[in-house]
Structures are given as structure tokens and as C-alpha cells.
Amino acid sequence: MPVSEKFKVACVQMCSGLDPAANIADALKLVDDAVRAGARLVVTPEMTNAIDSRKARLKEKVGEQDKDPAVEAFARKAMASGIYLMAGSFALRDGAGGLVNRSILFDPTGAIRAVYDKMHMFDVALASGEQYRESASYVPGNRAVIAATSLGRIGMTVCYDLRFAALYRVLAQAGAGLITVPSAFTRPTGAAHWAVLLRARAIETGAFVIAPAQSGEHESGRRTHGHSMIVAPWGEVLAEAKEAPGIILADIDPAAVMAARRRITALEHDRSFAIPVQ
């Protein structure tokens, strides 16, 4: 992170429903709260514009990136507020008949600074009986993304990516001092793993981890864990939400990144090794 000035970051916690217009209105009210509190970077959760398990119905409500009302609304808000605003993710059409789960960073002029499509699809059957097959609805991304900003280099990930430590290591080694993890964790997996994984990724990379979450019982029937978190490079939890919609804030000191990486220089210690033979 090549900047030295401290700044404030905010996570927006939501309970998105089926109506994108209503969800975006709710999100932007919380963004305004964060701006009034002094945040220069605000990040919303995964699926900010809608949580809907029915692919056909969702496709009717969202557009391609350059035509979608949610994208336009976030661009206007970033410009009006003079902040970096990250749509943790939007469901958007990909232009080829599919959907993408896309994280978008808007800069203080309202321009799109970076775009990341979630790579790892949540195809899981839980012991609780919940089943998810994200790959049936979304086209996965195929590249890691870092956004260069005046606040430093920001690595972009989404939700289930959190379980793939190699991605976070690559982002940190490429210079990311802050990594975003907008999510919609299920309640069973969230209670068991959410906080542990977020702290692990921060400790492993020596980076700040910014993790806004969906929370509550959604119109689609899905239930999410909440507990948005901001974690420091040494693993300290700087802020944590509970279950209600709202915001959390924390002060980011870029010097803490280099301090953590000097104390444990593991990012410099990769070695090649042979893969176990069956």
C-alpha cells in the first residue's frame, strides 16, 4: 500500500430482497450514513441489488453493466459523495445470455476503476439440507483483480473465494494492502467459519480485510449470517456488526501493512515442491 495517510472505511450490511430498486435505495441510504461518518471507501455486500434463487426471474430484473440502473445509481453516488464506492457485487447480465456475480469499484469521479467477477462458485449441499449450485446461474470469472487507487492497492474477491487461500496470497504478493470480501454467507457456515477465515486471510497476507455481509431472512427464503467485519493485518478485529442492517467503520493505517509484513515475512518465502503421488 504506497500511501501513508490514514483513512476511514465502512462496510454496509444489508438484507437484500427481490426488488433491485428497493435494495439499491436501501444501500444508498446506508452509504450516506457512512459518508457522514467520514468514510472514504464504502463497500456493500454480495448481491447488493437482489438475492433471488430463480435465474430466469433475476435475469428479467437486471441488465448488462453499461445499462443497469444499479450501476448508474452507484456511479452517481460515488461522484456526489467524492468517495470510492464498491458494489460488493451485483447480479448482471454478461451479454452472452448468462449472469455474472460482479464486484465493481467506482472512484470519486463516478468512473469505474475496477471490475471483478467472482471466480469460485458456491456449489454445496449442507448438512442442514440447504443446497446451492451457483454455477447453474452464474458464469465464473477467470482472473484476479487489483484496483490501484489513491488509498492504495485493493484486491477484490467475493464470498466463497474466501476459502481459496492461494488467491489472497497472489493478491498480497501483487501489492494489495487491503482486500475486500463482500459476502452472503449461509448461517451454518457463517457461524462455523466466517470469522476464522477472515482473520486467517488477514494474517496470511498481512493485509486489511474488509468484509461486508448480507444478514437476515430474505424474501427468496435464504438466510444469511451477517457479522460484517473489518480485520487488521495482524489479525485484530477492528469492527464487527451483529445481525441488523447498518454500517460498521474502522480507521485504516497503511503503515500497519508493512509493519505486519516485516514482522512475518512469509510472503517472500514461497518454495516449489513436488505434488504428492497417489
Describe the structure.
The chain has 278 residues and is α/β, with parallel strands linked by helices. It has a 6-stranded mixed sheet with strand order 5-4-3-2-1-16. The longest helix has 19 residues.
**CATH homology-level superfamily:** Carbon-nitrogen hydrolase
SS strand fraction:
25-35%
Strand order within the widest beta sheet = 5-4-3-2-1-16
Tell me the distance between the termini: 42 Å
Which stretches are poorly predicted, pLDDT < 50 over at least 5 residues?
Answer: none
Order of helices and strands: EHEHHEEEEEEEHEHEEEEEEH
Estimate the mean pLDDT confidence. Answer: 96
Supply the number of helical segments.
6
Counting helices, strands and paired strands, the structural category is: alpha/beta
| The number of domains | 1
Largest sheet composition? 6 strands, mixed
Assembly state here?
A: single chain
Topology:
Blueprint lengths: L6 E7 L6 H17 L4 E3 L11 H7 L7 H13 L2 E10 L5 E8 L5 E6 L5 E3 L5 E3 L11 E5 L2 E5 L8 H9 L4 E3 L6 H19 L2 E4 L3 E3 L5 E3 L3 E3 L5 E4 L5 E7 L2 H9 L15
Parallel strand pairs: 1-2, 2-3, 9-10, 10-11
Antiparallel strand pairs: 1-16, 3-4, 4-5, 6-7, 8-9, 11-14, 12-13, 14-15
Name its key features:
six-stranded mixed sheet; 6 helices; Nitrilase/N-carbamoyl-D-aminoacid amidohydrolase; globular; alpha/beta
Summarize the structure.
With 278 residues, the protein is of the alpha/beta class. The protein has helices at residues 20-36, 55-61, 69-81, 165-173, 187-205, 255-263, and strands at 7-13, 41-43, 84-93, 99-106, 112-117, 123-125, 131-133, 145-149, 152-156, 178-180, 208-211, 215-217, 223-225, 229-231, 237-240, 246-252. The longest helix is centred in the last third of the chain and has 19 residues, at 187-205.
